[in-house]
Write a structure and sequence with these properties.
The protein is an alpha/beta fold and 439 residues long. The chain is built from 18 helices and 14 strands. Helix 7 packs parallel to helix 8 and helix 9 runs parallel beside helix 10. The longest helix has 20 residues.
Length: 439
Amino acid sequence: MNTTLAESIRIAKWSPHRESEVVDAFLNRPAFDPEAERIAREVLEDIRQRGDQAVAQYAKKFDGAALTAAKFVVTREERTAAAGEVDMVFKRSASEVHNRIARFGKAGMRKDWTIATPKGGVLGEQFLPLDRVGAYIPAGAAPLASTALMTVALAKVAGVPEIVACTPCDKSGLVNPYLLYALEVAGATEIYRVGGIQAIGAMAYGTKTIRKVQKIVGPGGPYVTAAKRLVYGEVDLDLVAGPSEIAILADDSASPVHVAADMLSQAEHGTGHEKAILVTPYMKLAEAVRDQLVIQSATLSRREAIEVVLRNGTLIAVVDNLDMGMDLCNLFAPEHMEIQTKEPRRWVRKVKSAGAVFVGPWTPECAGDFAAGPSHVLPTGGKAAIFSGLTVEAFRKRTSVISLTRADLIDVLPIIETFGRVEQLDAHTRSAKVRFEAI
């Protein structure tokens, strides 16, 4: 076993009553990289000014792809050809996942509703789809075909008529056929072979070739995350969805082999900023998981990327009891949280901050990434404390509806007059009172 790697995987004791520099440093992970934000700001401003020309320049600089504006779009012929390159097993899997996502999305859609006012009027809400949205699909370290389904399919379920997908191409300008096929199944109406900051800028500001969208969704690395933050206001956004992270709360019933495997599943994404933490009251489990992380990582194809995370982004925290462990997990506010304990369902009620919770030994996080149904686009960087994961409602607008009778307006007129007086807005008051004056 690689003893040097094992020594670099930190095991630290933690309680809310005693400080731990190791744990505090692990928890203190900024959702935004200042250097990535500096670069993103410069690139975005250039795209705002020069449009397609700047997008092409940065596609060459960052992705090594020599593209002209005419080549940004993935043609219908390319989309059709991709279907011929994809194996039947994947096609069946993509269809099944799409059905699960759509079923879950439809079940979560809010319905229009109304209630009666005291004097015979109606109040309510109606929900309508956005007109044009953009989905960012990462494909640098790996072609995330699952993300194509987990974003675009929800927009389709919501009824969005124009669904734009942007994803990086390789240096020859090709987009992975499995990713293209997934986008086709999900319902993308436009696909562009543009990634990174330049994709976010094009969708946010619009260019001659890529028309502006109303909202951008989807995960990405530090540069995409920074770019999304900077264009907020030009467009709406879903959430902060950056490098992957996982927290596992486990007791002595958990298998160290399984726990380690689940931690490694999130370490392999390749940005180097991924985070994985095990929280347990059992030192024996902590040490066994550490050994398994080393043993299993040596067998994986992305070993180099994983070792970066094991050295820099992995922590095993030993606590006095599971309640204390849950407190630490809530402080971490992870993107993904697994509960591998006896009676795991009783601990779900104590989760306050997590993008998604995976309950019990038969629910590995990868099931959520690929198959379960809820979108795997989830908040990272501790932002699960304030954001929720992507749902079908992200692609719809809520409009309140107010319909008062004459009696209703008489009923609320004293309130209008009071607030108009306090806020010194006499035109507000006048617009109600004038309806009862003789003309």
